[in-house]
Amino acid sequence: MLMSRPTVIPRTSFNKGKLEYIHKTGVTRDSKMFKYVAAMETIQEKVANLEKFGLSEEEIWCLCGKCPILLTLSVEKVQRNMTFVLATMKLAASSVLKHPFLLLANLETQIRPRVDLVKRVFEMGMKPLVEDVSIATALRMSEKRFLKVYVMCHQEDVGEELMEFYEKAIKT
User: Fold this and answer.
1) DSSP assignment string, 116-170
2) pLDDT tens-digit map of 4-36
3) Which of 27, 109, 121, 129 meets the CB 3.0–4.6 Å disulfide criterion with 149?
4) The Cα angle at residue 85 between residues 51 and 108, in degrees rounded to 5
């Protein structure tokens, strides 16, 4: 995905400080991704943003090495998603280390509606088709699979109510 943004960092602007920051991301010099890592100031800003949520610099570099596309996300998007993960989902900040898609996914059209539907299913005393599915797994499912596991497995009237709830959650 980073390869779709070739102008993020000019090839001629590699100074020693920038090379150190890029090295910390874990992206190697011979990697095709090397030239697509963001500008040093941007990297510093994004690292500082994640540090505000309690992640150590070492954890952030590890995260960026696993998922370099995080460096292309806006500070605002990361703040919105992290705030939701911490406040609404009640997950630890370190959960994004294991599940970086929590920062990548669209909060309004994917994360929030799915989290709300999963909560609704359990509030109604219902269970998903597959037991012991973590919320992280539910967020990674395809739309078809997610609906099958959480909506279509219930009686028709309950399934319709859940589907209406989910569709409203996506639109709002």
Assistant:
1) HHHHHHHHTT---SSTT--HHHHHHS-HHHHHHHHTTTS-HHHHHHHHHHHHHHH
2) 554 444 444 566 776 776 677 776 777 766 655
3) 129
4) 120
